[in-house]
Structures are given as structure tokens and as C-alpha cells.
Design goal:
320 residues, Alpha-Beta Plaits
Length: 320
């Protein structure tokens, strides 16, 4: 369940109210006349199922409310309403599977901003991965995978293509490139310092490492894992089921690869540098492609579901 909140200019209020009142999936509708000071007009609240959000937002946006006022979608975590239950049953599909595109796009813009916090997490995750390579610690590899913030930016590449948002695509690419470049550079400098102080030796890096050798040894399994993880991650991000994201984080080898690039470069182990770089590219490309394909499929499926629901709502034609 979502609460749709509108700050609506006076000249658009009646049309917006009519759209919401006519929709059978709106379980409650509240209108405060002249309650909005900016824009001057009315405040309208409506409780709706997640499945109805895209259609209603599209209609209200076409009306001009997004330009002249404000449209908000607020999740309702707990609700008790027979009307709400009836509206959920009327809405096509399942609320757990529904993709609210406005919500997904807003989160994508927010999470792909290049901020100091994002860079800090990238650096710390890559540093943990580098330490994991030196100590051959699988536990640290998993910790680095979970800490890395890069997945949303990778998934956003597919979203930007599906929704045709070139600015979002550029933002995600910029954040990914600068994030990995800065993290690898900082960890390389730290590894050089550690080597200078004798904290890391060539033996530490060249010794057999059965727990972390997969990082610089990409194969067809790397691509398959990236495809599955990318699809699962996008499903988690676009639905209300986010529990699957942890499994995605600890399946892909993006952050571990960047950590190994830094360590191997310091000691001139170029086969590992190139192997890790290839692993990184395979994982990013595989996840981005799978995410794009999954979003495309979701858009097609929900388009069909909504079209069928619209046909069922139309009154039957007279045979006379």
C-alpha cells in the first residue's frame, strides 16, 4: 500500500480529484481545500495499491501536476482497512512484485551520486579485499563484497537504457569509473607504503592462495554468476523484497578484483592484474546486461497486465 500525496494548483485540483475518485483501486481519498501555500491550491491524499501507482502517476503527470505542483509516493508499512483490502484485490498482479518506476528511478538517481560516502565505502571495501588477497582469507573477501556500494550503480545502467534516461546513464558510468579508479589508486598507494615498511613481501602475494585464486581466474562461470546475480539484484531493488541483495553482494567479484589489481600491480604480477581486470569487466558487463534484460521483461509483463486490466474495466459493448 502507498499513500499518494499531491500539492495541487487550484486550476488542476478538480481534474486530479476526478482521476483519483474514478479509479476503483483508490481505497480512500482526502482533499484539503486551499491547504497548499506553494503552489497555491489544494492538498490531496489517496491510498492506493503499489500495482496502481504507475498508471495514476502517469495520468497525474500528463495533467501537469509534476511541473506545477508535487507528487509524492509514501510507503504505508501497516494498514487496517477493508476498502484497502478490496482495492488490493482489484489491482492487477501482486503488490510484492509490482515495480513502481518513479520510486526505482528516484532511488537510482540518489544512489548513483558520486559522494564522499560512496568513495569512502569503495576505498574501504577495496582495502579489505586487498588484505584478503594477502592473507588468503575468504571471510575478508565476503566482508569486502558486502561492504562495496557499487551494485546499484551497475543495475542503474540497465535502468537508464530501459527508461531512456541518458543523464542517469552518464551519472552511473561516471560514478562507477571514478569509484573504482580512486579506490584502486588509493589502495595501490597504501600497498606501496606497506611494502616499503616491510609489512607485505613478495612471498605473501606469490604463495599458494587456494581461497582467493578465483579472483584473477575468470571463466565462463564468472559470466554465468554475474548474469544470475544481476537479475536477482534488480528483482530485489524493484520489488519490496530486498532480502536477496545480500546474496548478490557475496556472489560477484567486482570489489575483490579491484583489490587484487592494486596488490598485484605493486609487485609487478601482471598476469594477476590482467586476470583481475578481466574478472572486473566480466562481472560489471554481465550484471548490467542481466539487469537490463530483467527490467525490460518487467516493463513488458506489467504493460501487458495493465493493458488487460484496462480492457476488463471497460463496459461491454451493446449488441443492439
Amino acid at each position: 500500500m502507498l499513500t499518494l500525496r499531491l500539492a495541487c494548483p487550484t486550476d488542476l485540483s478538480e481534474a486530479a480529484s476526478a482521476i483519483l475518485a474514478a479509479d476503483p483501486t483508490v481505497s480512500s481519498l482526502t482533499i484539503w481545500r486551499a491547504a497548499s501555500a506553494k503552489p497555491v491550491g489544494d492538498v490531496i491524499w489517496a491510498d492506493i495499491p503499489r500495482e496502481s501507482a504507475n498508471d495514476l502517476v502517469a495520468k497525474l503527470t500528463a495533467l501537469g501536476i509534476a511541473e506545477a505542483g508535487t507528487i509524492q509516493l509514501v510507503p504505508v508499512t501497516t494498514w487496517i482497512s477493508q476498502n484497502g483490502l478490496a482495492a488490493e484485490r482489484l489491482a492487477p498482479g501482486s503488490s510484492a512484485d509490482a515495480v513502481v518506476w518513479a520510486e526505482v528511478i528516484e532511488r537510482a538517481y540518489e544512489d548513483t551520486q558520486l559522494t564522499w560516502t560512496y568513495l569512502s565505502f569503495m576505498i574501504m571495501a577495496t582495502l579489505l579485499a586487498a588484505i584478503a588477497v594477502v592473507t588468503d582469507s575468504v571471510v575478508l573477501v565476503i566482508g569486502a563484497m558486502v561492504l562495496g556500494p557499487e551494485f546499484t550503480a551497475i543495475a542503474t545502467l540497465g535502468l537508464a537504457l530501459v527508461k531512456r534516461r541518458p543523464h542517469l546513464l552518464r551519472q552511473a558510468l561516471r560514478t562507477l569509473f571514478i569509484g573504482f579508479a580512486v579506490a584502486i589508486l588509493i589502495v595501490t598507494l597504501l600497498a606501496l607504503a606497506a611494502r616499503g615498511f616491510g609489512l607485505i613481501t613478495q612471498f605473501d602475494v606469490l604463495k599458494p592462495s587456494p581461497g582467493t585464486a578465483f579472483i584473477y581466474s575468470p571463466n565462463w562461470w564468472s559470466l554465468l554468476i554475474a548474469l544470475v546475480a544481476g537479475s536477482a539484484g534488480v528483482l530485489s531493488l524493484t520489488s519490496s523484497r530486498t532480502g536477496g541483495l545480500i546474496g548478490v553482494f557475496i556472489s560477484v567479484t567486482t570489489i575483490p578484483a579491484s583489490g587484487n589489481i592494486a596488490i598485484a600491480a605493486v609487485f609487478g604480477i601482471w598476469n594477476e592484474v590482467f586476470g583481475s581486470a578481466l574478472q572486473l569487466l566480466i562481472n560489471i558487463a554481465g550484471m548490467a546486461f542481466a539487469g537490463w534484460l530483467t527490467l525490460l521483461l518487467q516493463q513488458w509483463v506489467w504493460g501487458r497486465v495493465n493493458a488487460r486490466a484496462a480492457r476488463l474495466e471497460q463496459p461491454p459493448r451493446s449488441t443492439r
